[in-house]
Amino acid sequence: MKRKIFVFIGAPASGKGTRIMECKECESISTSSLLRKKGYDLSKGTLINDEDVCNLVIERIMESKSEKIILDGFPRTENQFWALRKKEIRIDKVFYIKAPKTILLERAKNRLTCIKCQASFTKTSFKKPKNYGICDLCGGKLVERPDDSKEIFMKRLDVFFMQTKPIIKLFEKYLVPIIEIDATLPPKEILKYI
Ligand SMILES: [Zn+2]
Question: pTM of the entire structure?
Fold first, then answer.
């Protein structure tokens, strides 16, 4: 079996999660959901040991029997990048979902997030939930995330760009194809490349 592993990189509110959900034949391995399952509270912004993150994600990749895997939120640090290489885990493609800051800010302002499954919806007609305040996928409550407020969101964007640039450079250096996806295109467009 020839397994394919894709890395998805996208700023907060870029629509990364929505695109990952479109890729139904891929197994998605999300750093944040693995950490949540282990009992980490991510809402407090606590620093999590990078070594723990690497072990958790790599263990999950090794266990997986899927032919196609999406890594969501990994590698986020250079250390995580090297951890993949050390284990000889080959990445087939990197998808970089790109959007101008102004669009990201606008989206964050209109975003509603499910407290149970983290799916996101909008207050505007695009991706509005079927029932007011309730998640279409799991019935969980939809809330405005406190970290989507303008000031905190701007900081999250800065952190994202600061962390991402060196990782993209590393992938480039090791000749992993990087596919830039325009975040304003419909999410289904991603399927052309998977
Ligand atoms: Zn939900």
Answer: 0.89
